[in-house]
Specification:
mainly alpha, 7 strands, Palmitoyltrfase_DHHC, protein-cysteine S-palmitoyltransferase activity
Length: 372
């Protein structure tokens, strides 16, 4: 233990001397860790706004940041040879608009790599502090729950409609005669479409209370698996938060053990200066690059996933779907009067219906039988 402590102090001191030599370039405004981290966060947020936000919030597609990003993207792609663009579009369609296991495997790789980096970098530091065992059980539990929910979302029934159960599902929700009309057939499945259903072009099946097709799970999100999808998103947020706690706890131990806030560095003029936040972060980044980068990435991912989760909780609480919001957005842009949401029965009933969809189907069937 003593040898490890001396080594850590000597190693940190060497890094402080190295960072002192780089202070001049840092203070002159050259690219440092904080700049890289800020740029990373901005790029991720821009990507989130451009793709995810416009996918689930169609009204945001009219905002000037999104339109400017789209114009910039179109300008860049116009410089690419047509054959390359055609091939890229084919790959894009194959990955995003056809069923495949690419994103499922990618998710497993990202989760495995993320846990490996966090555990390999934080475990020795937490072990040195003596708190590593406190994080072992939560890490295993969160990962097990997340992967279980991921499997349920991937292979669970989203609410598939067939010729045999189409009549039963048609009694669940009333037709509002605006978004959903009576006696309207699905041109592919050749049966009358129940209200709030949609034929998914990717899975090639009609889905009850269709929300969207999720490329990460390679499955549609509908009446029966929307609840599990929200739980899956919540589990991702919890895993990310736990990773941030482990990373920040480890870095805090390094700072406290080596008294870095009390350390000094040499500025560009060779003068001894008290430690600043900028130099401290640069020092930690040089010593633990993967750990610091992972902490920043997890914070960014937590914010984005929390927003995405809140959106789906909002959908459930108001008894809406992404598909219905898209339809209303198109109607609004066409100048039509938006219909009232006749499916909103209040937050409590909406949540109960989402959590226990089979009970709602049974209640609707009993109500229909009484009218006969």
């Amino acid at each position: 233990m003593c040898t490890t402590a001396v080594y850590m102090k000597d190693d940190i001191q060497n890094k402080l001397e190295s960072i002192s030599k780089l202070t001049k370039s840092i203070l002159q405004g050259k690219m440092d860790f904080l700049f890289i981290a800020g740029l990373y966060v901005l790029l991720w947020m821009a990507a989130f706004l451009f793709y995810f936000a416009t996918s689930f919030f169609p009204a945001l597609s009219d905002l000037w940041p999104v339109t400017h990003l789209q114009r910039g993207f179109d300008l860049i792609t116009s410089c690419i040879p047509r054959s390359w663009r055609r091939r890229s579009f084919e790959i894009y369609v194959r990955i995003f608009h056809e069923r495949n296991h690419f994103f499922q495997w990618m998710y497993l790789v990202l989760v495995t790599a993320g846990h490996s980096v966090v555990m390999l970098d934080t475990w020795p530091l937490l072990a040195h502090e003596g708190t590593h065992t406190d994080h072992l059980l939560p890490t295993i539990a969160f990962l097990a729950v997340n992967l279980t929910l991921f499997a349920v979302c991937c292979y669970g029934n989203p609410g598939r409609i067939t010729a045999k159960n189409a009549l039963k599902y048609s009694k669940v929700f009333p037709y509002d005669e605006v978004l959903y009309q009576r006696r309207k057939n699905c041109s592919t499945c050749c049966f009358v479409k129940p209200a709030r259903s949609k034929h998914c072009a990717v899975t090639d099946e009609c889905v009850m209370k269709f929300d969207h097709f999720c490329a990460w799970t390679n499955n549609s999100i509908g009446l029966f698996n929307h609840r599990f999808f929200v739980f899956f998103l919540v589990s991702i947020c919890i895993m990310c938060c736990h990773g941030v706690v482990m990373a920040t706890h480890s870095l805090q131990h390094v700072i406290n053990f080596n008294h870095l806030w009390k350390a000094k560095y040499l500025n560009s003029e060779g003068q001894s200066q008290p430690m600043t936040f900028q130099v401290l972060m640069q020092t930690l980044f040089m010593k633990y690059p993967f750990l610091v980068f992972m902490a920043v990435a997890l914070v960014t991912l937590t914010v984005m996933m929390a927003g995405f989760t809140a959106y789906h909780v909002f959908l459930i609480a108001t008894n809406q779907t992404t598909n219905e919001r898209y339809k209303k957005h198109r109607m609004k842009r066409s100048g039509h009067v938006l219909p009232a949401n006749i499916y909103d029965k209040g937050i409590v009933k909406n949540l109960l219906h989402a959590l226990f969809p089979h009970r709602g189907i049974e209640a609707a069937q009993k109500k229909y039988n009484k009218t006969l």
